[in-house]
Amino acid sequence: MTVGITGLGAVAGIGADVDTVFENLRSGRGALAEMRGFDRTRYNAQRLFEIDDRPEPGVDEPRRATGFLLRAVEEALADAGIDLDDSYTGPTEVPVLVGTGLRELRSAELWWRDEAEFRAEHLHFGTALRRRLGAADTHTLSGACSASLYALALGTDLIELGETETVVVAGADVITESMFGLTDRFQQVPTDGPRPFDLDRKGAVMGEGAAAVVLRASDSVDAGPRASLRSVGINCDAHHVTAPDPDGVSESIRQAHRRAAVEASDVDMVMLHATGTPMNDKVEAESLHRVFGNSVGRPLVTGIKSMTGHTSGSAGLLGLVAAVRSLETGVVPPITGLTTPTPEAEGIRLVSERPVTESMSLAQVHAFGFGGVNAVAVLEVSHP
Amino acid sequence: MNVITGTFPMLPGASEATDLLTRQPTGERVDPAAVLGRKGLRYKDRATTLGLAAALLTLRDAELLGEDGRADPATAVVVSSNLGNLDTVCRVARTIADETTRGVSPMDTANASSNVIASEIAIRFGLRGPNLTLCNGPTSGVDAVRWASLLLRAERADRVLVLGVEPDNETVRAFTGKRRCLDGAAAMVLESAEAARERGARTRAELVSCVRSSGVSECLELLSGNVRTRPGMWLVPETDGESLPERLLTGVARTDLSATWGAASGALGVLQCVAAVGWFDSGEHGSVHAVAGSDADDASAGVVLESAKEYR
């Protein structure tokens, strides 16, 4: 049984659909801008990768994450040729799994502090998915920055175990003031934007985004899917609440390779987690060396967070959507802001400054989160 | 077939699964430090310490805790909690508005992420399997049991610690509109029947099926399709005082755990499974149906548990 990816959806600061997001990624255009929804006098950092949809500057409103989620899911369903009108008639049985770092906690902040209208039934996404799509088998998984790839792993399992033929997997996050405020106070926040894998990287900058894919059981000869999802490896470092561990990260990559029955030397492209924090990038580079060994210089290696910001739990799936587009087009977007690679990245074929075009078929996508939750997906696009 | 081999209810007045059906809560708050010791608990939030204590006692009940206080690294963790870090998030946002970010404490950083309970459990007991946090509304606890079962069938772990936990505080009460909230945890170990048999573990209950549907009666219909006999007990969803129609499982005894122990939110489903184990522990046989999520919610999820048939 092969798990096919038949539809894609994405919303980020750099675009409200997959094509616009990918076009901006390949052109190296980022969404870093002056903060729009928060009171700037409260923070050291002044810029974030927000989605520009606030009614007016400095005014925030609840349930934005839900809105971005629905937009990404609807784009993915339409792309997969699933007619939404049919599902309005009753609860569809298609499971919808949503991975999120911060769920609708931003709305809870606005409720508590500003008495904004927000009810408990909307803290998870199921209520909105039921009302909009009729979906009754919905799951909000809150697993920090790897949540959407964790959700992808569960969606893959549902299909491989024969429990369902179609699954929608999504990720959605907007920035909470609590998480942003804590990083603003205690981590160095780069004023000129994040510079993943650069020697002078100073830290991550938060962003907002949503992504969705439609997964379908398919035969390998089926020409239908845009890509095949070969595996998703998931594990936990059991090491530290915020710091990553190279043992756990390496094992998650190996697990993904094992489950996909591929060798590291088969991989053509790596979509990094690459947050731009000193710790993540060091551990991620070390882990690539450990797993890839002599073939570490083979795959093209990139990341998107210097253009989208770190979009928390939705980041993994947003990276995966970009990776599918890269495999389809042969174009790998650059890591902007990367001029002098960190010493740990020596020998790794980092794409920087301008996009690289190559014929590729196999990619792996990384997502690692607070609490040591790691997820790595392997996907394939076959070119006729 | 997956089976339950250990449980613990971390609630005031309960010290084993059977207590959930026979006792009433005392007025006191349970003290996780009495189980865990004070060391290292200072900056952990209430939900995390409740979860750690319930995890320890459940792993011990399942005879999985080594002398070093660690368990098999191939164990997965699935936690369900809707409100675990709500108070931290709201408090930090308020502090920033009042004092700018200079007023916030670094000790809140881990607690600002909703998966802190599951990751702290993994760290303390050395559990390197998949680590999931469900924040899925009223059905969340039952959903956690379903994902635990899937992780076993997908061969992603040898066994799974499933835990439901909700704290009680001012923010939670204001947000849910409930006057009496759980402030406790319930946990269980789920593993395959073969794995349990191999290590000589006592099977306390068998997990027959997990379902999810648009409402309570649809959910019960799916559950009944998966069971050979009429249930001996129905653990009902929280309904905010609305009574469930008489035509549903007519004649089957109904138990509302939230009426006894307080509004349980994301902890309810796991609490129900632990109560079912308690029912079997007290000598009852047959099956129990448990449903979380009422018709007023976005969906209902249910499980069927059966008493163990020893080594058939």
Automatic annotation (TrEMBL), chain A:
It holds the Pfam family ketoacyl-synt. SUPFAM superfamilies: Thiolase-like (SSF53901). The lineage of its organism: Bacteria, Bacillati, Actinomycetota, Actinomycetes, Actinopolysporales. Signal peptide: none annotated. Transmembrane segments: none annotated. GO terms for molecular function: 3-oxoacyl-[acyl-carrier-protein] synthase activity. GO terms for biological process: fatty acid biosynthetic process. InterPro entries: Beta-ketoacyl_synthase, Ketoacyl_synth_C, Ketoacyl_synth_N, PKS_Beta-ketoAc_synthase_dom, Thiolase-like. This is 3-oxoacyl-[acyl-carrier-protein] synthase II. It comes from the Bacteria. The keyword Transferase applies. Keywords: Transferase.
From TrEMBL, chain B:
GO terms for biological process: fatty acid biosynthetic process. Keywords: Transferase. Residues 43-166 form the Beta-ketoacyl synthase-like N-terminal domain. It holds the Pfam family ketoacyl-synt. One of its GO terms (cellular component) is cytosol. One of its GO terms (molecular function) is 3-oxoacyl-[acyl-carrier-protein] synthase activity. Gene3D superfamilies: 3.40.47.10. This is 3-oxoacyl-[acyl-carrier-protein] synthase II. It comes from Actinopolyspora alba. The lineage of its organism: Bacteria, Bacillati, Actinomycetota, Actinomycetes, Actinopolysporales.
